[in-house]
């Protein structure tokens, strides 16, 4: 079993090395077969070696909630506390982006950050100062790629009818997608009252995958903007897995507030299959990345065993 201590490392270089090591790890126990839901079953063993039990896998995950689904067959490949409804932090921004993308607004229109976009709930910082001016496309890009809260707030404020109408549109869209356990109160994810369930979030991932802009912005590694004349800012993706060539990620979004823990949702291809991964309330700075790599290995090995 992979030690969770591999994930708590002092530098980005070491973190990358740990992630690479996890990516290459394969469970090769001859005493395991995987069912469709990836719950391992012990087989008789000549040397009586202990099998890798479901409880051990669950214990190795740092996320309170984990959910993996094959999108083509709708098969649930792995689940842990999948019926729970939890705060989703900045995963909220996927719905913010979906409402913006479907509204047909001018993506070249310049929006300005105002004092109304300052986070007075968590008092989080932002690199976009009041008075920063960017196109709607740039605001959307930063909100998705770097989880820029003021950018997401500005997008909501500049929606026809203002932010109250925008929030109503977010909840209307959730209902239209069949997301019955989802509710939004603002567009950034700073509020713990923005909640959802793993199965609902898979529906959101599928809906956003139909939007080329959301695909492009959530998976770009880096982006630079000029919010003021003579001031250039460079932003990076909050999900470092987009930099890893082994991951064919179609949609990605991270999130964090204290009430939600570390969160990550992705739509990715594993062994040629479109797979949704939902991780909520992970504990530890690199925990959601390690959990994603563990679950990827599990999916790959179950698929290999099924082909034998």
The SSE order reads HEEHEEEHEEHHHEHHEEEEEH
- Helix- and strand-based class? alpha+beta
Give the full name of the CATH homologous superfamily.
DD-peptidase/beta-lactamase superfamily
Query: Which strand order spans the largest sheet, edge to edge or round the barrel?
Result: 4-3-13-12-11
Using only CA atoms, what is the Rg?
20 Å
The coarse overall form would be globular
Largest sheet: 5 strands, antiparallel
Gap between N and C termini: 23 Å
How would you state the average pLDDT, rounded?
A: 84
Domain module tally: 1
> CATH fold name, please?
Beta-lactamase
As residue ranges, the low-confidence spans are: 1-53
Overview of the structural elements:
- The chain is an alpha+beta fold and 308 residues long.
- It has a single domain, classed as Beta-lactamase (3-Layer(aba) Sandwich), CATH 3.40.710.10.
- The chain has a five-stranded antiparallel beta sheet, with helices on both faces. The protein has a two-stranded antiparallel ribbon with strand order 1-2. It has a two-stranded antiparallel sheet with strand order 5-8.
- The N terminus is likely disordered.
What secondary-structure arrangement, pairings included, does this model have?
Blueprint: H1 12-24, E1 32-34, E2 40-42, H2 54-60, E3 63-70, E4 76-80, E5 86-87, H3 92-103, E6 110-112, E7 133-135, H4 136-145, H5 149-157, H6 162-176, E8 195-196, H7 198-208, H8 212-219, E9 222-228, E10 231-236, E11 248-257, E12 261-270, E13 273-282, H9 287-306
Antiparallel strand pairs: 1-2, 3-4, 3-13, 5-8, 6-7, 9-10, 11-12, 12-13
Helix pairs in contact: 1-9, 3-6, 3-7, 4-5, 4-8, 5-6
């Amino acid at each position: 079993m992979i030690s969770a201590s591999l994930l708590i490392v002092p530098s980005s270089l070491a973190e990358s090395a740990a992630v690479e090591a996890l990516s290459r790890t394969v469970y090769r126990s001859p005493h395991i077969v995987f069912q469709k839901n990836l719950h391992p079953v012990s087989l008789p063993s000549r040397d009586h070696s202990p099998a890798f039990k479901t409880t051990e896998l669950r214990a190795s995950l740092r996320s309170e909630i984990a959910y993996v689904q094959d999108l083509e067959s709708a098969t649930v490949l792995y689940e842990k506390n999948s019926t729970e409804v939890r705060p989703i932090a900045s995963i909220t921004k996927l719905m913010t982006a979906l409402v913006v993308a479907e509204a047909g607004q001018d993506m070249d229109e310049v929006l300005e950050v105002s004092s109304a976009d300052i986070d007075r709930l968590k008092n989080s910082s932002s690199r976009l100062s009041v008075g920063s001016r960017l196109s709607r496309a740039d605001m959307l890009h930063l909100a998705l790629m770097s989880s820029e809260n003021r950018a997401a707030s500005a997008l909501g404020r500049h929606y026809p009818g203002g932010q109250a109408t925008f929030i109503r549109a977010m909840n209307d869209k959730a209902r239209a997608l069949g997301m019955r356990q989802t509710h939004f109160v603002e567009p950034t994810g700073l509020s713990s009252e923005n909640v959802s369930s793993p199965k609902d979030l898979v529906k959101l991932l599928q809906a956003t995958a139909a939007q080329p802009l959301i695909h492009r912005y959530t998976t770009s590694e880096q982006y630079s903007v000029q919010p003021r004349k003579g001031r250039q800012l460079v932003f990076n993706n909050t999900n470092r897995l987009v930099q890893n060539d082994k991951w064919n990620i179609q949609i990605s979004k991270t999130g964090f507030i204290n009430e939600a823990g570390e969160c990550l949702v992705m739509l990715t291809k594993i062994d040629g299959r479109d797979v949704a991964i939902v991780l909520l309330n992970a504990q530890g700075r690199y925990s959601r990345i390690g959990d994603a790599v563990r679950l990827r290995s599990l999916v790959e090995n179950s698929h290999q065993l099924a082909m034998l």
